[in-house]
Amino acid sequence: MSWVMGFDTSCYTTSIAILDMQGTLLADCRQMLTVKPGGRGLAQSEMVFQHTRNMPAVLEEALAKVGGAPAAIGVTNCPRPLPNSYMPAFLVGAGFAQALALSHRVPLFSLSHQENHILAGVWSAGGPLSDRFLAVHASGGTSEIVLVERKGSTFDLSLLGGSIDLQAGQFVDRIGVALNLPFPAGRHLEALARTATGSVRLPVSVDKLSVSFSGPASHATRLIAAGGEPAEIAHAVETCIAETISRLIQAGINESGVTDILLAGGVMANQHIRRYLRERLSQIGNLFFPEPAYSPDNAVGAAFLSLLK
């Protein structure tokens, strides 16, 4: 049996995925990196250490689900598709993937972490299928809207706009830690927010295709210091991000004339944000959401690229 596989060693997840030659998922194996209680992240050296420690077990788990050998391998090797984009954590996945490709004498295809998110989204959501679409990538490291142009098996990305300071995922984590939630805080903040009534609002800072989360984060921090209700503050953070992204998408549509929009990245797994965007934008755009499991960091996009290639 032939199959393709993908590797991704991002900031907080060691990931391997395997697809068959029809694009059916055969293995999706991930291991979160460990952050000490109260911590706000990991140094790159610690990420490299933990990925190196995790990778043999994750690889063994993935290969146990298939027989035969890979036909091609894909791997993320940098954060974004830019000449100077670099992060040491990605070297772990790149090294393992290259060694496996050489040992099996199969092609190795590289892509950025951002492209991996977009391709995983396209695979999971079944689209967009158009040659030009917008993609919002909202995560701990990126909050951007890009124009994606499909050229055969290649996807060219052009940056339209995004955050000028704090990223959406950083906003969630910063307020989550201030609310004594575990890090990364995304799913914990979402669970806390479910009990809220929506009585608290945060300011939204959007200027066409430029957005800012530092002001809303400072406002939320002051509310916490003043003894604000944690659930209401958590809900306000979600709503602030959703409204910011809604306005960013509207500006992106106005700028490009493109109305097919893919929503990718870990922040987009949040169900409140998804509902909010559907309510606000369904009349002006075609929204494509991957399954929540394929919004956070994973290696399916890298495997999908190797299949397309």
From TrEMBL:
Gene3D superfamilies: 3.30.420.40. GO terms for molecular function: metal ion binding; tRNA N(6)-L-threonylcarbamoyladenine synthase activity. One of its GO terms (biological process) is tRNA processing. Its EC number is 2.3.1.234. The keyword Acyltransferase applies. Residues 50-301 form the Gcp-like domain. One of its GO terms (cellular component) is cytoplasm. This is N(6)-L-threonylcarbamoyladenine synthase.
